[in-house]
């Protein structure tokens, strides 16, 4: 039987968990100590280096929610850079950061501030999510020799990103002989 060659090209853009941070405060009610915490996470979905985009989530535990929150780019010490990236009421507990949002050189995280602290330069974020601005990787021109084209194609194609931190395996399915395209049916860490 003949051999069939095909190439697969696709763009792989990972949204990596961009970290989470914990900010805690304590207060007293009578003799009981109350602990409150706010955690925040952000996954960058923008494939361009130097830009971010995605949803900034937070969760409050043991604390009464503020009337509103704002998100800013902040440095390691919590100093704000630029204007607010978003302002939302407490019930939403998320802010959409638009794709293409430029990251300044010193920004290391997204900081969550209570809206009541607007304009107060000494205010510190109640939670931060560290930024990991990883660009997308283009993987293409992969070839696979199908020694039995009549039986259909099933293959594992593996690669790692140039930074070596992540590896995935994609299993193509329903490959078109004319266009050499498949659809992803599985992704798993290597």
Structure characteristics:
4-stranded antiparallel β-sheet; 190 residues; Immunoglobulin-like; disordered N terminus; elongated; single chain; mainly beta; disordered C terminus; 13 strands
Q: Could you characterize what this model shows?
A:
By secondary structure, the protein is mostly beta strands. It folds into two domains: 63 residues, no CATH class; 114 residues, Immunoglobulin-like (Sandwich). It is 0% helix and 57% strand. The protein has no helices and 13 strands. The strands form four sheets. The protein has a four-stranded antiparallel beta sheet, with no helix packed on it. It has a four-stranded antiparallel beta sheet with strand order 6-5-8-9, with no helix packed on it. A three-stranded antiparallel beta sheet has the order 11-12-13, with no helix packed on it. The protein is elongated, with a radius of gyration of 23 Å. The N terminus and C terminus are likely disordered.
Could you estimate the helical fraction of the residues in percent?
under 10%
Q: Fill in the CATH topology of the largest domain.
A: Immunoglobulin-like
**Element order: H for helix, E for strand:** EEEEEEEEEEEEE
Enumerate how many helices there are, as a single number. 0
Tell me the fraction of residues in β-strands, as a range.
over 45%
Q: How many strand units?
A: 13
- Given this structure, which CATH class of the largest domain is correct? Mainly Beta
Compact summary:
With 190 residues, this protein is mostly beta strands.
Secondary structure blueprint with pairings:
Blueprint: E1 4-12, E2 17-29, E3 32-43, E4 51-61, E5 68-74, E6 80-89, E7 94-102, E8 109-114, E9 127-130, E10 137-146, E11 157-160, E12 167-173, E13 183-189
């Amino acid at each position: 039987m003949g051999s069939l060659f095909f190439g697969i090209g696709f763009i792989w853009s990972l949204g990596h968990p961009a970290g989470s941070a914990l900010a805690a405060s304590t207060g007293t009610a009578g003799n009981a100590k109350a602990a409150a915490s706010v955690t925040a996470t952000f996954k960058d979905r923008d494939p361009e280096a130097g830009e971010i985009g995605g949803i900034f989530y937070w969760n409050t535990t043991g604390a009464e929610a503020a009337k509103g929150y704002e998100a800013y780019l902040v440095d390691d010490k919590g100093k704000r850079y630029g204007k607010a990236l978003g302002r939302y009421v407490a019930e939403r507990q998320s802010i959409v950061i638009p794709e293409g949002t430029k990251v300044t050189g010193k920004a290391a995280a997204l900081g969550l501030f209570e809206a009541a602290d607007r304009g107060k330069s000494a205010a510190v974020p109640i939670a931060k999510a560290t930024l990991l601005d990883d660009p997308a990787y283009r993987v293409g021109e992969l070839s696979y020799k199908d020694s039995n084209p009549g039986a259909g194609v099933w293959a594992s194609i593996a690669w790692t990103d140039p930074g070596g931190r992540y590896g995935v395996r994609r299993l193509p399915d329903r490959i078109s002989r004319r266009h050499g395209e498949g659809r992803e049916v599985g992704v798993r860490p290597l």
